[in-house]
Amino acid sequence: MDDDKERFLKEFGEHYGYPNSPKNIDQIRSSEFKRLEELVYLDHAGATLYSESQMEMILKDFTTNVYGNPHSQSDTSSSTSDLVRSARQQVLEYCNASPKDYKCIFTSGATAALKLVGEAFPWSKESCFMYTMENHNSVLGIREYALAKGAAALAVDVEEIENQNGHPRNDLSSLKLSQRSAQRRSRTEILEDIPTANSLGSAYNLFAFPSECNFSGMKFSLDLVKLMKENSERALEGSPYSSGQWMVLIDAAKGCATQPPDLARFPADFVAISFYKIFGYPTGLGALVVRTDAAKLLKKTYFSGGTVAASIADIDFVSRREGIEESFENGTISFLSLASLHHGFRIINNLTLNAIDRHTSCLMSYIRKKLSALRHGNGAVVCTLYGDLTKMSSREWGPTISFNFRRPDGSWHGYREVEKLASLSGIQLRTGCFCNPGACAKYLGLSHKDLLSNFEAGHVCWDDNDILNGKPVGAVRISFGYMSSFEDAKKFISFVVNSFVPLPNLAGKGYLSSGKSTPFSSKDVHLKAITVYPIKSCAGFSVDSWPLSSTGLQHDREWLLRSAGGEILTQKKVPEMCLINTFVDLAQGILYVESPRCNIKLQINLDPALSGGVKGEMDLQSQSVMAKK
C-alpha cells in the first residue's frame, strides 16, 4: 500500500469500500469492471456504469424466459404483467413509498416523467410554477406549459437562516425562499394585473427542486416538501403567490443514485427517476412516482393503446382506463427493460444505499480537500470550487464536484482544454453547464447581460467557446459512482498537478526547448516534442524550440475561423478544418495558412498595425473569415 492510500484510509477508512458486503471495492473493480483498467471514469452524474455480472444475469434471464407483450392474454404475457407489478413495487420500496399512497408510472426517462407532470398539471391563470435556480433544463421546460396557460413562473433561491451561534437551524423555520423573478407570457405581468392573494386561494401551484444539484452536488433539504405543503405563507412571506394549494415535484434523477427521497417522511407529490443513473442499465427507462391524490388531479389529453377502456374510430367517443398507471403509460411499456431492473436493484441492495452514500462521499471529500489545497508558486489558488462548503457538512453534498482552474496570473484555463487533456490522460469527465443554466450562472457569477452577450457572440450549449470576455461560461465536473475507487481519485489529482500546477523551477523561464539544454531540472520530466496550433481546430506545426508568453506557447490558439455569418467554426462542425496547415515564421513575423482546397497560400503579418485588424480571408466553401481571438 502506498503512502497516499495509507493516509487516505487513516482519515476515511471507516466509510471507504464495502467491508460488510460479499465483495469489497477492490474485488468489485477487478471482477465486475475489468474494462476500467486503463480508464478513469468520472462522469457518473452523466451515466453510471453497469457491472459485468449484472449484464450476465440479464442475458441469462432473457435467454431462459419468454416475455410476451403485457397487453396480450397469453401465458407469457401474464408472466410479463407479474414482472411489471414486481418492478413497480421495487421502485416504490426504493423511495420508501407506500403502495396505498403512491403509484409508479414508467416512462422513457426522467425527462419524460417531468414532461408528463408539466403537460397534465391543472394550470390556470391563477396558478404559479415555482422552481429553484438550480434545476435541470428538463424541469425548466415545465415553465412553457405553465406560461401557455396564463400561469406565473417564479424562480427562487433557498436560504438557510442561521441561529445565534452561526449554525443552520434544524427545523422548518431555517428555510426561506427568496424570489428571483416572476414571469408571465403576456403583458399582464405588470404589477396591477398580477392576481391578488384572494383570487389565488383555490389555485393549484407547483414547486420543483432537485434532491441533488447536478452542477454543484449540493443536496437540497427535503424539508422543503413539508414547508411548501404545510406553511407556504411563511416560506413566501410577502409574495402574492404564497397562498393556494401547493404541490411539490422532486427531480431525483441525480440524487437517487446515492440517496433517494424518503416519501414516508417527506410526502412529495411527484418524484422523477432515471434508472441508468442508479445502476447503468437500462437506458431509456425512468419512472414518475406520484402520490395517488395528486395523480387524480392530472388532466391528460392524449390517449393511446393501453390507456383506454373503449374508443370509437369515427365519432368523438373515448372511455379511459381508471387505473393510474394504465391511464398514463402510452402504448406498450418497455417490458424487457423492466425485466432488467430487478438485476440492477440486486446490485444496489447487496451493497446497501447507506454504504454507497458513505463510499462516494468520502471520495468526494478527499478530492475537494486536495483541490482546495493546490497553490501556484506565487501562492495563487489553482482551483476554484463551486459551492459554499463553509456552511455545509460533507453529508449535505453528493458525490459531484464542479470547478475551474486558474493560471498563476489569475486568468482561467478553458474547460474544453481541461477536458481534452484529461481525455489524453485516460480520464473521462464532463464540462459545460450540464443542462443546468441557473446553477451555472449563479456559481460562475454570470449576469443576464453576460448570458445574452455570450449568446449574441455565438455561444451555444456544447460549443468550444469556454472563455468569453475573460470569464468561464461553464465548468469542469467530476462525479463518483458506487464502483469508483481511491485509485481513480489519486490519478485525477496527479493529472491536475502535472497539467495545471507548474513546476517551481519553471518560474521566470521565457523559452521552451526540446533540445538537450532543457530548463527542466527534474530527472523524471522529458519534453519529447513541441507542436504549435496558431488557429484553433486547424493543423499545427512541430518545432524544436519555441518562445513562451504569459498564456503559454506564443501564438498558440491565438486565431480562430469564423463563418461569414459570425459563427465560430471548429472541427466538430467542420471536420475539413484538420486539412488547413499553418506555420509561423518568427523571423519574418508572418503566419502562413494553406489548404489543399484553396488555390492560394495566405500570408498574414503578425503585427496588428500592419495587418489592419482582420487577418485575412479564405474560401472554405463557406467564405470563412479568420480573426484574432
Automatic annotation (TrEMBL):
<dbReference type="InterPro" id="IPR005303">
    <property type="entry name" value="MOCOS_middle"/>
</dbReference>
<dbReference type="InterPro" id="IPR015421">
    <property type="entry name" value="PyrdxlP-dep_Trfase_major"/>
</dbReference>
<dbReference type="Pfam" id="PF03476">
    <property type="entry name" value="MOSC_N"/>
</dbReference>
<protein>
    <recommendedName>
        <fullName>Molybdenum cofactor sulfurtransferase</fullName>
    </recommendedName>
</protein>
<feature type="domain" description="Aminotransferase class V">
    <location>
        <begin position="246"/>
        <end position="492"/>
    </location>
</feature>
<feature type="domain" description="Aminotransferase class V">
    <location>
        <begin position="40"/>
        <end position="153"/>
    </location>
</feature>
<dbReference type="InterPro" id="IPR000192">
    <property type="entry name" value="Aminotrans_V_dom"/>
</dbReference>
<dbReference type="Pfam" id="PF00266">
    <property type="entry name" value="Aminotran_5"/>
</dbReference>
<feature type="domain" description="Molybdenum cofactor sulfurase middle">
    <location>
        <begin position="527"/>
        <end position="603"/>
    </location>
</feature>
<dbReference type="InterPro" id="IPR015424">
    <property type="entry name" value="PyrdxlP-dep_Trfase"/>
</dbReference>
